[in-house]
Write a structure and sequence with these properties.
Blueprint: H1 6-14, H2 16-37, H3 41-55, H4 63-87, H5 91-106, H6 113-129, H7 139-163, H8 167-188, H9 197-229, H10 234-255, H11 260-267, H12 272-296, H13 309-322, H14 328-350, H15 361-365, H16 378-383, H17 390-411, H18 419-428, H19 433-460, H20 464-481, H21 486-504, H22 509-533, H23 540-562, H24 572-596, H25 607-632, H26 641-660, H27 676-679, H28 685-713
Length: 714
């Protein structure tokens, strides 16, 4: 998002992240303000602390998940505050509690992102409760106040969601559409001769990860909300129809893969390449307008392209053909772009139709099969109690590092808030090195910049009322950026912490600044050393398993595509599930490779081969989507034995790739090929040539993947 764009700024203010920021600020700040008027500011701070810790688990998702997460967080935060309040007078007992709690709560990660947030809230509660000043009066009373704050925030959040049940899903859908627009904009870059193809593939893979994550989140929110509210709200139906169409449009974008190097060689000297890039960008802009309209809860205006770019492209292609240039590839690109443009126009038209075209009840009912169901079995914990598990290694790493940080803070005089060392380690130390490194840099730079801002405010603004205004502004911005721009979150969070402590301890304004910076640097240094040298988790160690997982998903998707040749055997829901699985695993593979690029060069093993594997996998996914789209047409059928042979070779290449990686391909149903005589049909040579060409490209790509799998395995 460009924050210099007025539309983007407006959408940010009306979007889910700023809304969450305002809600968190209201939930955290209100108890402190109310109790300050009652003359008991410290009690208010304890309640506000509970609200903040529980708000960490209130991430985007269905109401049921958010409610469960916040209630679980209330319980674990209360337990953490109570136990730490009992033990914080004894350094020895705290030295036992810290590693135990760190290990146990870090293992929550095996249950997914929300469970990890619940564990993080409990650990932050432990770190903050290590301050004996907070529990000097009565530890049990302090723990109850923290629990009260958590319950207050839970009720506030759930009440807001009940008022407009679809608003959160609408905001998330808008963000999802913006990600699809970014994906299309990235594809447009291939049509510029100045763009490096390999680099752009890497960027495209990163955007694909974001698209899949957003679509998965929106799918779950829409389904759960619709199930809870019912079908009486037309806005829910509209959002569902838009989402289903956007998923199909994204698949069509994925299917539109071409040999861009060859494309440049053939047509790079003609203006048509620039015009295609411009046309694709125009469609991406319309998708962005749609996304912003959804976020802003506005009715979008009909697409208004500056010119009839499709007619211009068609005329240029016809002019080139008249000069003897073969334009088959350009015609394919044109047809695909025209189709995507028409589907985008259809979505805009939904807002102007008196009666919405409903999706089929069968397809809507099948949405439940696309929703993930998280198991909370203890078996998951037991299965991960091994050094082969990255979660287990991270839990051990976090436990030991926090213990070391605590012991250092006891030996070195760091002021009265030395627990900030442990707090910094908890916030920065991530399961992977690249995430820890990024957090480290952002935390240090954000603290320095935010600290400078905080010092200026404390020095130049003595008036407490003005300081409170700054406090509110910084809190809203810090909470708004917390999940999307960690650096900015730290920049705004640091001065608001300074202002809070200036209210609590007005006589020690600048001592707080010095302590905050020293503790942050020490905690960051320990986190960096631990992630690098103590049970480190390097991405290359898990790449082999992830590559096998992706190949298995590709094989399953291919089997579903081939079943299209037999209308009776084809299962639309099974096909879409296989497609979703393939996209998600491909996105995970791409994300892992991106993280590896942030690791030390000595740990980037087989970098070129792994990069080529990621690129070829992306190309294969596009070829599969193209093949699937072709088979929807009635005139594209199996017409020769040679085509059947190619299909079997593709399957065998994928199976051999899995064998190289030490995996055995799951039993998949390719039985449709056993009745070759009944499948082969007579068709014209053009359609025969199209299918043969597509299978040939897929076979070549699978052959290259098989060779790369052998290298990766070795």
């Amino acid at each position: 998002m460009s924050f210099f764009n007025p539309t983007a700024i407006k959408s940010f203010i009306l979007g889910q992240y700023f809304t969450d920021g305002v809600k968190m600020t209201l939930g955290v700040l209100l108890p402190a303000v109310i109790f300050s008027f009652l003359g008991d500011f410290r009690t208010g701070i304890s309640i506000s602390l509970g609200a903040f810790l529980v708000s960490i688990s209130d991430s985007t998702g269905p109401l049921e998940h958010r409610r469960t997460g916040m209630l679980a967080s209330c319980g674990f935060v209360f337990l953490s505050a109570l136990v730490t309040g009992v033990l914080n007078q004894s350094p020895v007992l705290l030295a036992i509690e810290i590693p135990v709690f760190c290990f146990v709560f870090a293992m929550f990660t095996v249950y997914g992102t929300r469970a990890a947030s619940v564990g993080a809230g409990a650990l932050l509660g432990m770190a903050i409760s290590m301050d004996p000043h907070k529990t000097a009066a009565a530890f049990w009373l302090y723990a109850l106040m923290v629990l009260a704050g958590g319950i207050w925030y839970t009720l506030l959040s759930l009440s807001i969601m009940q008022i407009r049940p679809y608003r959160v899903a609408q905001q998330a859908l808008g963000e999802s559409v913006l990600q699809v627009a970014a994906f299309l904009r990235q594809k447009a870059a291939f049509y510029s001769s100045e763009t490096d193809v390999e680099t752009n593939y890497r960027k495209l893979a990163a955007v694909q990860v974001a698209v899949n994550e957003h679509q998965d989140s929106v799918r779950e929110m829409l389904y759960k909300t619709r199930k809870r509210v019912g079908e009486s709200i037309s806005s829910g139906q509209l959002l569902l129809v838009i989402f289903v169409d956007m998923v199909d449009i994204f698949e069509q974008m994925m299917a539109s893969h071409y040999d861009y190097k060859k494309l440049r060689e053939l047509y790079g000297q003609y203006p048509v390449m620039h015009d295609f890039k411009r046309g694709i960008q125009l469609v991406a802009e319309e998708l962005s307008r749609l996304g912003y309209a959804l976020i802003n809860n506005e009715k979008p205006r009909h697409p208004h392209y500056p010119e009839d770019f499709l007619a211009g492209l068609r005329e240029q292609i016809e002019a080139l053909e008249q000069t003897g240039v073969k334009c088959l590839m350009l015609r394919k690109i044109y047809a695909n772009l025209a189709s995507i443009t028409a589907r985008v126009d259809d979505i805009y038209n939904y807002f102007y139709e008196d009666k919405l075209t409903f999706i089929s009840q069968t397809r809507e009912a099948s949405l439940s099969k696309f929703i993930g169901h998280q198991s909370f079995s203890l078996k998951l914990i037991r299965d991960n109690l091994t050094l082969e598990s990255n979660v287990f290694r991270h839990a051990l790493r976090l436990a030991v590092t926090c213990l070391v940080g605590y012991l250092i803070s006891l030996q070195v005089s760091l002021g009265s808030h030395s627990y900030w060392v442990v707090l910094t380690i908890l916030v920065i130390l991530r399961p992977g090195f690249s995430l820890t490194k990024r957090r480290n840099t952002q935390r240090i730079l954000g603290t320095l910049l935010g600290g400078f801002t905080g010092v200026l405010i404390l020095y130049l603004v003595p008036d407490f009322s003005l300081r409170f205004v700054f406090l509110v502004i910084f809190m809203v911005l810090a909470y708004s950026f917390l999940r999307i721009r960690y650096f900015l979150a730290v920049v705004f969070m640091t001065p608001f912490i300074f202002i809070v402590y200036a209210f609590l301890y007005p006589e020690s304004n600048f001592l707080i600044v010095r302590e905050r910076i020293i503790d942050t640097v020490l905690g960051s240094g320990l986190a960096y050393l631990a992630s690098n040298f103590f049970l480190p988790s390097w991405e290359y160690t898990g790449f082999r398993q992830m590559a096998a997982s992706v190949l298995q998903a590709n094989l399953e998707y291919f089997a579903q595509i081939i079943s299209r040749f037999d209308a009776k055997a084809f299962d639309e829901v099974a096909y879409r599930l296989a497609r979703k699985k393939m996209y998600l695993r491909s996105a995970s593979l791409s994300a892992a490779f991106q993280r590896m690029l942030d690791e030390p060069k000595s740990k980037q093993r087989n970098k070129q081969d792994l990069h080529q594997f990621v690129v070829l996998n992306h190309i294969l996914s596009s070829y599969f989507s193209t093949l699937s789209s072709s088979l929807v047409r009635a005139d594209v059928v199996l017409s020769s034995h040679g085509q059947v042979v190619k299909i079997k070779r593709i399957r065998n290449y994928l199976l051999r790739s899995l064998e190289h990686l030490g995996e055995k391909g799951e039993s998949l149903d390719f039985s449709v090929l056993d009745h070759e005589d009944g499948l082969l049909k007579i068709t014209d040579s053009a359609e025969t040539s199209l299918l043969t060409e597509q299978l040939q490209l897929i076979q070549k790509t699978c052959s290259d993947l098989e060779k790369l799998s052998r290298k990766v395995a070795s």
